[in-house]
Write a structure and sequence with these properties.
203 residues; alpha+beta; 3-methyladenine DNA Glycosylase, Chain A; 9-stranded antiparallel β-sheet; 4 helices; 9 strands; 30% strand; globular; DNA-binding
DNA sequence: TATAGGATAGGCT
DNA sequence: GCCTATCCTATAG
């Protein structure tokens, strides 16, 4: 018996702790009549406004990133490199712009739908490996921006009951950051050690 | 209106 | 492992 994670989980101020706590939770989507789900195995924390890697760095506000300023528990979708949709969960209180990027899940439900969306039939460990692939496999895109992770019937997160000890989860610098400075190397990426569904698992 | 740049993925060496 | 196509968005003029 599983259930959705309560809203207080997302409204905490410590986005790094939330990114860590999301490892092992189950992400579900019900899109185009297809139910898909998997266990979160890789996340990254983005802490606006002081984190240069965050879209909300320096309190930057645009129509695209507006969702980051909502109270925790909203879905923030962002298009990267013009082609890849990425799934973020907004955290913290209203007006605070922290978010967690979901980078990879280990699929366990609706895998045949994921294969179809990805046109990838013989490589299941790559279906949701990396944020762009994950969104595509799960049927997520910019139209899901602003969904409420507790109220939406298209996307939600459940507590799988799985528990991981501190030495089973590894922290590293975040991926793909294109600048120099103290936040480039800060270890705000978390992933399950040895898990085959994690992107770039050696870093 | 034009243009630079970006939280990638996949193909090739 | 390295390289780059690809195209949306923000920003400047």
């Amino acid at each position: 018996m599983t259930k959705k994670i309560p809203i207080d989980f997302y409204r905490r101020d410590d986005v790094v702790q939330i990114a860590l706590d999301l490892i092992g939770k189950d992400l579900y989507t019900y899109i185009e009549g297809k139910i898909c789900a998997g266990t979160i195995v890789e996340t990254e924390a983005y802490r606006g406004p002081e984190d240069r890697a965050s879209h909300a760095f320096n309190n930057r506000r645009t129509p695209s990133n507006e969702m980051m300023y909502r109270a925790g528990g909203k879905v923030y979708m962002y298009i990267c490199y013009g082609i890849h949709d990425m799934l973020n969960i907004v955290t913290g209180a209203e007006g605070c712009s922290h978010a967690v990027l979901i980078r990879a899940i280990e699929p366990h439900t609706g895998i045949e739908h994921m294969r179809e969306r990805r046109k990838l039939y013989n490589d299941d460990h790559r279906l949701c490996q990396g944020p762009g692939s994950l969104a595509k496999a799960m049927g997520l895109n910019k139209s899901h921006n602003g969904s409420d992770i507790l109220l939406s019937d298209k996307i939600w997160i459940e507590d799988s009951g799985k528990k991981f000890s501190a030495d089973e989860i590894k922290a590293s610098a975040r991926i793909g950051l294109n600048f120099d400075g103290p936040y480039k190397m800060i270890p705000w990426r978390f992933y399950l050690k040895g898990n085959n569904y994690v992107s770039r698992s050696n870093l």
